[in-house]
């Protein structure tokens, strides 16, 4: 158990202990520096008090160039170590483990909208299984929000016009507070919710009890057809358009000479701002669906494009 557990709320995720350790380490180092400075200030005040016979104007004999270089270098190395320690913990939150459960979160004034892969939807609630890595793919419909769960020591900005992501693995069941920690308007303080962590069997029962609905990918396929995307990207389309089968995760050559990976952000931009990353070899015929496709539509479309697996090697070679 963390010896400083009384200073913090419960450590409910795998990343919480690491974050607490960094906090305690930086706090301890700051206290040491404070005490050293305090001792020096009090010591020099006593030595050079008014009326003392201490010599003034010259540095003490023990203060040499080597000593000054030494404490400056030590401070630099300690600062670099703290930077590396904190950065490595932050970087580990960028990439979820393989096979993580993917849940989409959309922030808007002033609520959190959650969409599960099964099609279940929630408002200001997020149910997740215990002991299973959960990858959160998040975006905002309006202004900057910040998804903050204190018990997980997890805070991730949620930005309009792009995707951000983080992940967690819960250590204990329970209901944990969810806040927006970025001022987002008049009712910012009311933008709260809860993360409910359940045993895997209980989570499975909860998921089965939700109203019947299509999965995100199925919803995206319906939107793909309703918006007319299949007219250019369908199997029988006569318009030259980039193939979408297996596009997710693939390196794509662009008209301006760049090569980018087709991640969620790339797919989102391809829908809402196609001129930003035009694929090499294709005319700029793709219209923008900004203002046509809602945020939920875009999330579903991206899920559908991600579900389009690459064709078998024998078929692709034909």
List the helices and strands and how they pair.
Layout: H1 14-47, H2 65-91, E1 101-108, E2 111-115, E3 121-123, E4 125-129, E5 134-140, E6 145-149, E7 154-158, E8 164-168, E9 174-180, E10 192-198, H3 200-209, H4 216-226, H5 230-233, E11 251-253, E12 259-261, H6 264-272, H7 295-307, H8 313-316
Parallel strand pairs: 1-5, 4-10
Antiparallel strand pairs: 1-2, 2-3, 5-8, 6-7, 6-9, 9-10, 11-12
Helix pairs in contact: 1-2, 4-7, 6-7
Strand proportion: 15-25%
- Between the first and last Cα atoms, what is the distance in angstroms? 60 Å
- In this structure, how is the largest beta sheet organized? 5 strands, mixed
Arithmetic mean of pLDDT? 82
Which range best describes the helical content: under 10%, 10-25%, 25-40%, 40-55%, 55-70% or over 70%?
Answer: 25-40%
Global outline: elongated
List its traits.
318 residues; alpha+beta; five-stranded mixed beta sheet; 8 helices; 35% helix; elongated; disordered C terminus
In short:
The protein has helices spanning 14-47, 65-91, 200-209, 216-226, 230-233, 264-272, 295-307, 313-316; strands at residues 101-108, 111-115, 121-123, 125-129, 134-140, 145-149, 154-158, 164-168, 174-180, 192-198, 251-253, 259-261. With 318 residues, it is α+β, with helices and mostly antiparallel strands. Helix 1 (14-47) packs antiparallel against helix 2, helix 4 packs across helix 7 and helix 6 (264-272) crosses helix 7 (295-307).
